[in-house]
Amino acid sequence: MFQLDPVDRPGVLPMPRIDVDSIDWRAEHGVHSWSLDHVIRKGTPTVARMAADLINVRDRFRDLHPGLFDVCDVRVQRLMPGMFPSIPGWHCDDVPRNGYHSQPDLGAARNGVGHVVGTLSSSGEGVSRTEFVAEEMASFRPITDEPVWRQLHRHVEEGEPATWRAPDGWWVPITWRTPHRATPAVRRGFRIFFRMSMRPRPAHDEPQDRTVEQVYLLTEENGW
Ligand SMILES: [Fe+2]
Question: I want to staple 185 with a disulfide (CB 3.0 to 4.6 A). Which of 67, 79, 105, 151 is the partner?
Fold first, then answer.
């Protein structure tokens, strides 16, 4: 696998210049299923600033997909080397499931619907970059009864497609066909992960912040 320069990736947009040394990291909180407008109004300073930068992207999405709603999820984490801020195996985001414990149903996903994701962290070189497969994987279909993402993980590992790791400070557009995975933190630090998705159901704009975050460790039993 090799890495591409993110500046050359189609659709990848720079975030506004934010001086990460000036961020009060302990004052930043994540959110769970908030609309972009709600994040701008009620989010913590840096999170709200990141959200404000996405207004044009959201408006363009809405024009292209009338009837869909912007829903934001933000994680703020303090990481130690080796911790994964998210799922360490190859997977896609937001593929519909019939129930909480059901497997993702690739046949039920809507074409064209996507997300924009981006990170900032307390180190200029990044704390943990998200790794993306460089092209959408349209050909993958689960063929056994094993968990869908385990099969996708193997499919990607065996196919060895081009991948790239997004540096902080860039908005990356992805769809439900863009496999990605977290990479382990390479240094100690704080990290904000911001994702805006377009979904058929509106955000619920709960008043409380999401303040408890989990991290992931690679172990034998977690299935990847
Ligand atoms: Fe993901």
Answer: 79
